[in-house]
Amino acid sequence: MPLRLRPSSSVLSKCIISAIFIALLVVLAWSLENYWQHTLKPRLYLAAQTQANVLAQSQSAVIVETLEHNKPLELATSLRSVVQEMLIVEDPAIGTRYIRGLTLQFDYDLLGLAPGSLDFHEGDAQCVNCFLIELPLITSRGDLLGIANVAISDGYFRTLSNEMQSRLFAESGLTFGLLVAVWLVMMLMFHRLHAAKHLLEASDRAKTRFMANITHELRTPLNAILGYTQLYKDDPALMDNYRQGIDSIDRSADHLLSMINDILEFSRADEDSVTFHPSEVSLTGFLGTLVEMIRLRAQLQGLDFKVRFDEKLPAEIRVDEKRLRQILLNLLSNAVKFTPSGEVVFSVTQQKTRTQGHCRLHFSVTDSGIGIARNQLKDIFIPFQQLDNPITRAEGSGLGLSISQRLIALMGGKLRVSSRQDVGSRFWFELEFPCRRSTSSPTEHKFAATDTVTNDSNIRLPPKALLEELVQQAQRHDVLALRKLIQQLEQEACYQDFLADIAPFVSNYRFKLLAAKLVQYEQTP
Questions:
Q1: What letter would DSSP give residue 495?
Q2: Rounded-to-integer distance, Cα 328 and Cα 307, Å
């Protein structure tokens, strides 16, 4: 089944924004409650308790003064009158009596009175919510006459705390309101931005489809131009008189065709629309075809192309062959293009993996080319971004690495690069595939890896006349004629290996390499 990546909904983003604001509101409410319970309320309680102590001490002073300045016979009456006045006094601030209860106990030996004659227990001395204060009754001479237990109402504390709590939460409500307002504004802005994003994406998709259609249509006339330049090159008289112009047309058309192919692939390599079609692929044959394509190009440029493959690579992997070939061909082509002299090394090694029935392969392309400055490494992956050097000024679209990076990411890997200017570059990535283990010996793998992996002598070639016609059409870059000839060969089962060998060249419009490959077949004894 093909793997298709679908665009994610904005619901998750809205939920995340809402969750953040709800968390902020909860944290704010918790912090206010925590501040009230553990800071403000204890301070108010302490202030009310201090006030109650001061009031109790003032009342105890009145009791001591009454004991000192009244005659023993009048003491009980005077003391009761004073206590009654204390118990009936109300505080207008709280609307209730301050002193809710009073208990007096005396030392009758110092007073010279009968035991229990002055003891008082008035009001609610055990009030649950009151401040219970115990004070000694000490005369000016320092004599301890007794103990007074006073129950003072907590009305002052309750009134003050209710007012302070209401004011605190009322003023904090402004902060809550501002947060909710910002939340609503952000959700509205996000909704509008998301709608605008959809419009832009729809417009971008329309432009992409238009670009893909146009570039696809442009390839047909370009192939015709390239075909005629190949015909002109076969005419010695024309080449003697117009060699420079014909070569210029051929180079320009070939460069334009390469750019159009890159743009077409870039327009298709959108994350929302990329479709992978994995299938069982013979790794040996896949790598062999790839190596031969690049080896021909490297030989034409005078480079030394080396391959280093693990001896125990899997026999088959399940992958989208076209996409993997596109990635590797891009990296290898860049390595050859940006290496004026020296070597290009292509290596594939197997890494350890814990997934049963899977293989993790490490692909690496190293060259001794012009290299990339450290501060420019990030720029090479930007679409249409090219570094300033003679090679990129002459050719290229700046899309190859961007496409490769995107495809590798969609396949679960990451394209990495290390480079030194004027020394060379190395690109590598790792991917994990379902695979089937190889049953061949290490020697066979080693031979296959170092000797282009394919054996042309085992391939059944078409008749000589048809092979020559294929060479001519490849030299003319006539893709329509090539496809007709291939359709003829597809009717014969014996040519399937031959068709599989040249298919990558045709599908990637690598006509010069295809022509060189077919010429090599012609020369095969």
A1: G
A2: 13
Cβ-contact 398, 384 below 8 angstroms: yes
360-379 burial: b if 16+ Cβ within 10 Å, else e: bbebbbbbbbbbbeeeeeee
Q: Where are the beta strands (DSSP E) in 167-272?
A: none
Q: How far is CA 431 from CA 271, 291, 361, 410, in A?
A: 18, 19, 6, 11
First to last CA, the chain: 43
Q: Whole-angstrom Cα distance, residue 242 to residue 223?
A: 20
Length of the chain: 525
Quote the DSSP letter at residue 6: -
Task: State the pairing for strand pair 343-351/304-309.
Answer: parallel
Pairwise CA distance, residues 486 & 490, whole Å: 6
How far, in Å, are 20, 271, 437 from residue 13 at the CA level? 11, 19, 44
Rounded Cα distance between 395 and 364, Å, is 24
Residues 137, 513: Cα–Cα separation, whole Å:
116
Within the chain, what is the greatest distance between any pair of CA atoms? 154
Among 204, 233, 145, 185, which residue's Cα sits nearest to residue 512? 233
- Rounded to whole angstroms, how far apart are CA atoms 355 and 344? 32
Tokens 């290996």 label which residue?
497
At 131, list the tokens.
């401040």
pTM, to two decimals: 0.47
Q: Report the DSSP beta bridge partners of residue 434.
A: 358
What Å distances lie between residue 102 and 63, 114, 120, 155, CA to CA?
Answer: 11, 21, 7, 17
Return the structure tokens found at 429.
């990535």
Per-residue pLDDT of the chain (525 residues; tens, 9 = 90+): 344 444 455 777 778 888 888 888 888 888 888 888 888 888 888 888 888 888 888 888 888 888 878 777 777 788 888 888 887 777 776 777 778 888 888 887 777 777 877 777 777 766 778 888 888 888 878 888 888 888 888 887 888 888 888 888 888 888 888 888 888 888 888 888 888 877 777 776 666 666 666 666 676 677 777 777 777 777 788 888 888 888 778 777 776 776 676 666 666 555 455 677 888 988 888 888 888 878 877 887 888 999 999 888 888 899 988 889 888 988 998 888 888 888 999 999 988 888 888 899 999 999 988 888 887 777 776 766 566 555 544 455 566 788 888 888 888 899 999 988 888 899 999 999 898 765 444 433 443 434 333 444 567 888 877 887 888 778 777 777 787 888 888 888 788 878 888 877 776 667 777 877 887 777 665
Measured distance CA(310)–CA(444) in Å, rounded: 11
The alpha carbon dihedral of 444, 450, 453, 454 has a sign of negative
3-state secondary structure of 119: coil
